[in-house]
Amino acid sequence: MTAVLEISGLQKTYRSRKGVRRALDGFDMTVEAGQVHGFLGPNGSGKTTTLRTLLGLIKPNGGRMAILGREVPESLPEVAGQVGAIVESPQFFGNFTAQDTLSLLADAGGVHKDRVVAVLELVGLRDRAKDRVKTYSLGMKQRLAVASALLKEPKLLILDEPANGLDPGGIREMRTLMRNLAESGMTVVLSSHILGEIQLICDSVTIISGGRRVAAGSVADVLKSNTSSSVKVALEPGVDMRNAIELLRANGAQVTVEHDHFTVGNAGNPAQITRILAEREIYVSELTPVSADLESVFLQLTGTAPVEGQNRQVDQTAAAPAPANGGWGQ
Ligand SMILES: Nc1ncnc2c1ncn2[C@@H]1O[C@H](COP(=O)(O)OP(=O)(O)OP(=O)(O)O)[C@@H](O)[C@H]1O
């Protein structure tokens, strides 16, 4: 496979009167050709900074970047025609129709007029193409933004939160569109906070936290290598869960409390749970393995799982993620 996008050791520090903020701290990312690649990270972790740096909108303080094998920002003029991107919500003239808007952009970019009709059809705006943009919903503006990025048939399409504002039907259409684009040979990089969606659409992912890569690879590999054996535990009806949870935590278990059960995240040896609880005459009514999903891996790796009684602040992430495999009770 060939890398369409390569970033290594990227550094970006913002300086303001309030001091210095290190947004990227040696960030690495590789995206292979023809993939739909998810770029994930909590608020403030450095996603937009990475994408803006890549597109030459801000200057890095160090590191290397290449698009389609060409070093950027130096070779950006040569590769720009092959990259379509929506990094921040684009602003459109409200009095223009989608067709006017795209025709204007096509003219400016030397793109044939036929392409305007094709992209309107692709993003599902054909029937509203002659309405003014100011009458569009958020999701329709989002579709128009994607259409504008597709005009020049880019080899690499970069989308920041493309599903933002879309209804469930729109999200599903966007998913199909991304897959079809990848099948036609385009490489798609998308950032999103809808992790279930990323798990469905993407071939591979990069997870960023605190300006550094914390996981990368195929979705299956990231799930496999970052999932400890979790089990769902329910107690007999009417039994107070608090004693059981305290007891397990005192023994080193990572316990997440749900409304009528709890999950033990590092249960290498589930028999240990029943033994510890039974010794105190607490009996479990259910002990079921939990299959991994991208959301729980994301929360674990970025240290952003909600903690009871605490309001996590945006820059708070775990210093070091808990070890994935193995754990207490082995
Ligand atoms: N112009 C700026 N000046 C100072 N700090 C900035 C600037 N832009 C971004 N930052 C800081 O850099 C860090 C990374 O921000 P960035 O916008 O890249 O995060 P993000 O991952 O895109 O977040 P989100 O998911 O909320 O969009 C944050 O702490 C942010 O406050």
Automatic annotation (TrEMBL):
Identify the residues that the record assigns to the ABC transporter domain, covering every copy. 5-235
- Provide the alphabetized UniProt keywords: ATP-binding, Nucleotide-binding, Transport
InterPro entries registered for this protein in UniProt: AAA+_ATPase (IPR003593), ABC_transporter-like_ATP-bd (IPR003439), ABC_transporter-like_CS (IPR017871), P-loop_NTPase (IPR027417)
Q: Which Pfam families match?
A: ABC_tran
Q: Which domain of life is it from?
A: Bacteria
GO MF, one annotated term:
ATP binding
Family the UniProt entry places it in = Belongs to the ABC transporter superfamily.
Q: Which PANTHER family match?
A: ABC TRANSPORTER, ATP-BINDING PROTEIN
Q: What is this protein called?
A: ATP-binding cassette domain-containing protein
